[in-house]
């Protein structure tokens, strides 16, 4: 086994360029640290299940799986199958509720 | 800062939408991952079987509606949903409580007709109402003698629907045993 003597030089550890974290990043961190992100996700999941959205997506996946053969599907395939329809078919009320909660959080986080 | 509220509001809206989209995508990935798992592990029993079952159920429907299949009197090969076959005529044997003979269950009703009917000797007598019955239902066979079974069966069957003759059958007090 020929030792690799022609190793390229170790790349310089890029110190985070000290740039200001974006507002988005700050909010994201606050969301996560306060636990609100998890709560929001659970709320959204619950609403989407209640309204049948989840079942629709699963049906799409099953139909795709049946066509492609169950051992040939990848997670990527399924994500691509349901993303467009999934994004489009969220009920307005659900979306409004979640947006409202997020906005409330933003206000309360004094951002 | 100019119109901080407006700026804030639109920035907030944008941010909210951004985060909402992020949450939604995350949930989409979850659903996809779960469906992928179900598909790969074969946990979805109906996946490919659905077409198969549709076909089988259509087939079963045809079989059921086909009159030549089940219900034939002589066909002992009809199988019920538990996989049992039953002979068309029930063949358990027991003792008739009227005459004491050994009777096959499937032949019990006709037997009773004859067994109890024969005992209704009053039927064959010319009493006032039974005469009316006989005149009405007699099919030309002599009344004083035992009518052939088929005729008497007719009489008894029809007579059973009316209350008169039934009462009279025991008025005589004699029930002739066969």
TrEMBL record, chain A:
Keywords associated with the record: Activator, Chromatin regulator, mRNA transport, Nucleus, Protein transport, Transcription, Transcription regulation, Translocation, Transport
Region annotation Disordered: where it falls in the sequence: 1-20
GO molecular function, one term: transcription coactivator activity
GO BP terms, alphabetized: chromatin organization; poly(A)+ mRNA export from nucleus; protein transport; regulation of transcription by RNA polymerase II; transcription elongation by RNA polymerase II
Main subcellular location of this protein, as a coarse class: nucleus
Subcellular location: Nucleus, Nucleoplasm
Residue ranges with Pro residues bias: 1-11
InterPro entries: TF_ENY2, TF_EnY2_sf
GO cellular component: DUBm complex; nuclear pore; nucleoplasm; SAGA complex; transcription export complex 2
Listed PANTHER family: ENHANCER OF YELLOW 2 TRANSCRIPTION FACTOR
Family: Belongs to the ENY2 family.
Function: Involved in mRNA export coupled transcription activation by association with both the TREX-2 and the SAGA complexes. The transcription regulatory histone acetylation (HAT) complex SAGA is a multiprotein complex that activates transcription by remodeling chromatin and mediating histone acetylation and deubiquitination. Within the SAGA complex, participates to a subcomplex that specifically deubiquitinates histones. The SAGA complex is recruited to specific gene promoters by activators, where it is required for transcription.
Oligomeric and partner information: Component of the nuclear pore complex (NPC)-associated TREX-2 complex (transcription and export complex 2). Component of the SAGA transcription coactivator-HAT complex. Within the SAGA complex, participates to a subcomplex of SAGA called the DUB module (deubiquitination module).
Protein name per its UniProtKB record: Transcription and mRNA export factor ENY2
Organism: Nelumbo nucifera (Sacred lotus)
Gene that encodes it: LOC104591709
Automatic annotation (TrEMBL), chain B:
Highest taxon listed in the record's lineage: Eukaryota
Biased composition (Polar residues): 129-148
Keyword terms: Activator, Chromatin regulator, Metal-binding, Nucleus, Transcription, Transcription regulation, Zinc, Zinc-finger
Major localization listed first in the record, in broad terms: nucleus
Transmembrane segments: none
Region Disordered: start-end pairs: 121-148, 159-178
Entry's Gene Ontology cellular component terms: DUBm complex; SAGA-type complex
A Gene Ontology BP annotation from the UniProt entry: chromatin organization
Pfam families in the cross-refs: Sgf11 (PF08209)
Molecular-function GO term, any one: zinc ion binding
Subcellular location: Nucleus
Keyword rRNA processing set for record: no
Keyword rRNA processing set for record: no
Family from the record: Belongs to the SGF11 family.
Name of the protein this chain belongs to: SAGA-associated factor 11
Source organism: Nelumbo nucifera
